[in-house]
Design goal:
mainly beta, Immunoglobulin-like, 10-stranded antiparallel sheet, 5-stranded antiparallel sheet
């Protein structure tokens, strides 16, 4: 007879410890990532990997660091237990790890961008940054790979408005979805500070492209203003020469087909740029009222033009 078999011996670790133990000291930064894993080669070149991934052209591939936190509060849940009718207490599962971070006061426009991550826990994982030790903490995956912790909550809190005694306050709260990712499968790596200080990782500046009117149907000419930081900083002031020298930073499409750009010329009166499209090209719309799709950048193209640290942007303009 073939008997039923169940292995009732739980596998445990051992209890020896080393004199070179690592203990988390101060969590003062996080890196939000898409649902990706880092392989061995990427971990071996970790400083370069993180720097590159924070500047990916595609938003869906990009890492988003939020660093130099100024406060931390544990919001861990207690373990879930059950009491039998005989009064015997048993453990059901661990509670979740919860954390609330007080953010650096980097301005309202910056916080507006942070707020776009609110409730996006299903789209991101998170690495923790221990700034005191320049260590990044995540979880082990299969196949000798590592990744950020999965999230059950990502909450960008309402700001604390100044009350006369306290200044404005910004904060983010997270809950880790699976405590075992930290309790049993934690991964950490110290990064050589000569290669990268983790808390010096910065995200990209947001960019806004704003057409100042319509595109003239007969000529294919229209004006745009390129700003950043919630429209408060005009890239014309620092980068007008670079932008006009590289017209391909702009791309204009109609129905998915690119319309060639003849020139991009600085227009000081609006601190913007005049874009001249080739209206003789077959891709140019034949009649007024068409919507043209405008893109500015990729991140890598902007870096090639020495416009470093800025994201790509999109806008539309109608022909008239």
């Amino acid at each position: 007879m073939i008997q039923s078999v169940k292995n009732c011996i739980k596998k445990t670790g051992n209890t020896g410890f080393t004199g070179c133990a690592y203990n988390i000291d101060k969590i003062d930064g996080i890196i939000l990532t898409p649902n990706v894993e880092l392989d061995e080669a990427e971990v071996l070149a970790l400083a370069s990997t993180l720097t590159t991934k924070c500047k990916e052209d595609k938003e869906s591939d990009r890492f988003y660091p939020i660093t130099k936190m100024i406060g931390f509060e544990n919001q861990n849940q207690e373990s879930v237990t059950a009491t039998s009718s005989y009064g015997i207490l048993t453990k059901v599962r661990n509670g979740q790890y919860g954390m609330k971070f007080d953010l650096a006061k980097n301005g309202l426009a910056w916080y507006n961008q942070i707020a776009t991550f609110d409730n996006q826990h299903t789209s991101f994982r998170v690495f923790l940054i221990d700034g005191s030790n320049n260590v990044i903490v995540g979880t082990r995956s299969t196949g000798n790979k590592v990744k950020g912790f999965s999230l059950s909550m990502l909450s960008v809190e309402n700001m604390m408005l100044p009350d006369g005694s306290n200044p404005v306050g910004y904060s983010v709260s997270i809950n880790l979805d699976d405590a075992d990712q930290l309790n049993k499968r934690a991964w950490y790596a110290e990064v050589d500070s000569d290669d990268l200080v983790l808390n010096d990782l910065t995200g990209l500046y947001n960019v806004e492209v704003t057409p100042t009117g319509t595109a003239v149907q007969a000529t294919g000419i229209f004006d745009v203003v390129v700003t950043s930081m919630g429209y408060s900083y005009n890239l014309y002031d620092s980068y007008s020469t670079q932008i006009t020298a590289m017209p391909t930073l702009f791309n204009v499409k109609y129905n998915g087909t690119t319309i060639p750009i003849l020139t991009v010329v600085a227009k000081p009166s609006i601190k913007g740029f005049t874009i001249d499209l080739d209206q003789t090209n077959a891709a140019y719309p034949a009649s007024a009222g068409a919507t043209l799709d405008i893109t500015f950048g990729s991140v890598s193209a902007l870096e090639t033009a020495n416009i470093v640290g800025y994201s790509n942007a999109e806008a539309t303009v109608k022909t008239a």
